[in-house]
């Protein structure tokens, strides 16, 4: 029983213990249920924290980078605003190099600032992208909207600051405009400061403004060159061809043309060339060519071509030789200054002008003796005064001038060049022989012209006058040396021969008159026919008057003069004959005529004193 009671007690204790345990289990279950719920919440919280930590780890580097880069942007922005004011409210004329340094510093700062902005934007964009990619699940709205987006918009706006500075109306654009405005002032200055100009050019070239600078430079320097040339008085370069043909003193214009061309090349364009070389260095040729073209240099070629295209005359050879001499003298300067493709037009014009000059000289020179021969039959009646034909004076003066060293050496050079172009040999005898041909043709012309006179006496006077002129103007000259002493002696012999023929055909016939009446009529006829004759030289006149007086007066005194009433006394004959053959008054005065009469009177007195009648 006791065992049963003990067992029952034991069971009862166990039952109570089970109840307690069951109660505890219920409590533990509730606790576990709560714990389970808490664990779920904790798990969710830890997951969120883990995701947020992962996101923060992802944006840490780009955000850190953006923050570090953005810190310097405000201070740089303030610096640029200060530089902008300096560029806008100052001028290079007050301090060029300081202004240039400000421009360079501004440009460097803008590039640095733009680089910072370009580095910052990708970092901010990456942060924004990561936040969006995670659906803003853990992102604060204010962080995204108020900070990241705002910063990104501001930096993107600042990125356009460089473009604003360089756009029209911007600080840098205006500053470069001021430099271009300052440049003409420097270029027009007589004392050009190369350091300033080169500094401006470097800055303009660094900003791709060299095209504007080149146009300004060409305009200013070509204007300067043109003004310097206009000071020389170059209006004659623009004369039309017809005026040049009519111009008697064209040699003065050609002389000036040579001087002015030399001045233009050696002093005007030499200066411009050196300036271009210093400023533009390797690229100077094209710019220098524009200056030369716009300065009016082409007018020199226009004038030269007008002379070449003028009438073919002997005197034109001298003018063309002068042009050739100038071109040859300036050839080294032309080759040095006007070389390269940029000067193709000037090179072509120079060669063409040289070619025209050489051909013009040679064509005219080789045709001269033919032109002289063609005038054997004069187009107009010969002058009744038996004067020296214009062709004789022109040819004589021309040949003497041509043989002067100034022209002769140039002519030989021109002919040698022309012969070379035509693959022919050159010899100086070609040229000297042609001059002899010209003089020989002129002599043949005189003989032909003399035959045109009806009266033999006038024909003789014409030949005497012309040959005396030729002899006088060749003796002791280059032409005389070329023709030779024998030729000069022949001229003198011809004069003596023509004088004998002249006396025979005129005054010598008076000796055949037997009475005073027939003598007077014959004398008057001869005197009247020769009263209009003008001799080219006073010495020739003295000599002919002396010969005529000796041929007329002494025989007249011996044969015809008597105390009886006569029409002509010996004194009257002397006065009348002494008044013949007077040259133009402008050239010879009356005092020489008085001397001539006195000299003739002495000759006659000597002659009369030796006659039988005087005995």
Automatic annotation (TrEMBL):
Pfam families the UniProt entry points to: Exo70_C (PF03081)
Matching entries from InterPro entries are given as:
Cullin_repeat-like_dom_sf, Exo70, Exo70_C
For this protein, what is any one GO molecular function term? phosphatidylinositol-4,5-bisphosphate binding
Is Protein transport a UniProt keyword of this protein? yes
Q: Could you confirm whether the keyword Transport appears in this record? A: yes
GO terms under biological process? exocytosis; protein transport
Gene3D superfamilies given for it? Exocyst complex component Exo70
- The protein's superkingdom reads Eukaryota
Any one cellular-component term (Gene Ontology) = exocyst
Which positions fall inside the Exocyst complex subunit Exo70 C-terminal domain? 256-578
What the record says about family reads: Belongs to the EXO70 family.
| Functional summary from the UniProt entry | Component of the exocyst complex.
Record's protein name: Exocyst subunit Exo70 family protein
Q: Which organism is it from?
A: Cuscuta epithymum
- Source taxonomy: Eukaryota, Viridiplantae, Streptophyta, Embryophyta, Tracheophyta
């Amino acid at each position: 029983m006791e065992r049963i009671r003990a067992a029952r007690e034991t069971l009862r204790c166990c039952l109570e213990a089970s109840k307690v345990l069951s109660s505890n289990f219920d409590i533990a279950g509730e606790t576990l249920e709560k714990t389970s719920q808490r664990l779920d919440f904790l798990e969710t919280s830890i997951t969120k924290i883990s995701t947020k930590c992962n996101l923060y780890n992802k944006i840490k580097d780009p955000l850190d980078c953006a923050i570090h880069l953005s810190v310097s942007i405000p201070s740089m922005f303030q610096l640029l605003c200060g530089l902008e004011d300096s560029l806008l409210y100052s001028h290079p004329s007050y301090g060029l190099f300081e202004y240039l340094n400000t421009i360079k510093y501004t440009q460097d700062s803008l590039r640095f600032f733009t680089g910072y902005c370009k580095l910052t934007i990708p970092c901010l964009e990456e942060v924004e992208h990561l936040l969006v990619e995670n659906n803003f699940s853990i992102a604060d709205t204010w962080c995204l909207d108020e900070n990241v987006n705002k910063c990104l918009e501001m930096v993107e706006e600042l990125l356009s600051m460089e473009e604003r500075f360089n756009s029209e109306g911007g600080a840098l654009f205006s500053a470069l405009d001021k430099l271009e405005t300052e440049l003409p002032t420097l270029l027009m200055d007589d004392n050009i400061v190369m350091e300033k100009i080169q500094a401006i050019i470097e800055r303009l070239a660094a900003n791709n403004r060299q095209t504007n600078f080149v146009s300004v430079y060409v305009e200013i320097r070509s204007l300067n060159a043109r003004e310097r040339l206009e000071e020389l008085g170059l209006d004659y370069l623009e004369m039309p061809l017809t005026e040049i043909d009519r111009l008697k003193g064209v040699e003065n214009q050609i002389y000036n043309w040579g001087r002015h061309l030399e001045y233009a090349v050696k002093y005007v364009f030499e200066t411009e060339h050196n300036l271009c070389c210093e400023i533009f260095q390797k690229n100077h040729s094209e710019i220098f060519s524009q200056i030369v073209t716009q300065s009016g240099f082409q007018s020199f070629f226009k004038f030269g071509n007008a002379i070449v295209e003028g009438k073919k005359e002997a005197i034109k050879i001298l003018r063309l030789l002068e042009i050739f001499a100038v071109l040859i003298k300036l050839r080294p300067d032309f080759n040095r200054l006007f070389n390269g493709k940029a000067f193709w037009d000037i090179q072509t014009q120079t060669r063409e002008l040289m070619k025209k000059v050489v051909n013009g000289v040679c064509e005219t020179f080789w045709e001269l003796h033919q032109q002289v021969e063609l005038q054997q039959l004069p187009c107009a009646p010969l002058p009744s005064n038996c004067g020296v034909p214009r062709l004789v004076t022109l040819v004589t003066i021309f040949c003497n001038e041509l043989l002067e060293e100034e022209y002769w050496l140039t002519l030989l050079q021109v002919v040698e060049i022309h012969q070379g172009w035509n693959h022919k040999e050159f010899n100086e005898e070609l040229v000297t022989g042609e001059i002899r041909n010209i003089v020989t043709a002129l002599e043949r012309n005189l003989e032909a012209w003399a035959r045109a006179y009806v009266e033999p006496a006038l024909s003789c006077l014409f030949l005497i006058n012309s040959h005396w002129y030729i002899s006088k103007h060749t003796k002791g000259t280059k032409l005389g040396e070329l023709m030779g002493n024998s030729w000069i002696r022949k001229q003198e012999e011809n004069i003596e021969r023509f004088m004998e023929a002249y006396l025979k055909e005129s005054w010598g016939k008076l000796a055949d008159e037997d009475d005073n009446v027939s003598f007077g009529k014959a004398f008057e006829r001869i005197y009247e026919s020769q009263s209009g004759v003008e001799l080219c030289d006073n010495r020739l006149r003295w000599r002919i008057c002396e010969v005529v007086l000796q041929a007329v007066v002494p025989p007249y005194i011996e044969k015809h003069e008597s105390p009886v009433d006569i029409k002509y006394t010996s004194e009257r004959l002397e006065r009348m004959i002494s008044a013949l053959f007077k040259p133009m008054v402008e050239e010879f005065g009356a005092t020489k005529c008085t001397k001539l009469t006195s000299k003739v009177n002495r000759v006659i007195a000597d002659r009369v004193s030796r006659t039988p009648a005087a005995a």
